[in-house]
Amino acid sequence: MSIYDFKVLDYKGNVVSLSDYKGKVLLIVNTATGCGFTPQYEGLESLYKELNEKGFEILDFPCNQFAGQAPGTDEEIHEFCTFKYKTSFKQFKKIKVNGKEEDPLYTFLKDAQGGSMGKRIKWNFTKFLVSREGEVVARFAPTVKPAEIKEDILKLL
Prior knowledge:
- The chain is of the alpha/beta class.
- It has helices at residues 40-51, 74-84, 104-112, 150-156, and strands at residues 7-9, 15-17, 25-31, 56-62, 90-91, 127-130, 136-140.
- It is globular and about 35 Å long.
């Protein structure tokens, strides 16, 4: 199974095949609008604006599993992010990243990069870096700011 075999829903409910991102470097992030890490949206947007033309994409998956920090509808979350943080990268439907109802994409990501952090996603803004070939090459804790992984991204671009 490859990351490109997955289909996900964008925030409007449209089916998106991750095969659309073949040849791109991806940063996949579970996010929340009411979290102490929410200001990372600013850093994510900065990375996206700087590196998108070189083949970099950010896939934003809001998640309300951690202290209910992503309340609201998918549309409300999208409006919050685009208004407050001017985000322009792709945002998807709210998902679960742990447990019986976790999205299969996150099962795949965690299996590929569980490592020392274990399989479980511990909080919002956990980040997975995927190479142009679709290999999940790194996992970053929520405390790691987007600017701190810029060099890792550049190596893959």
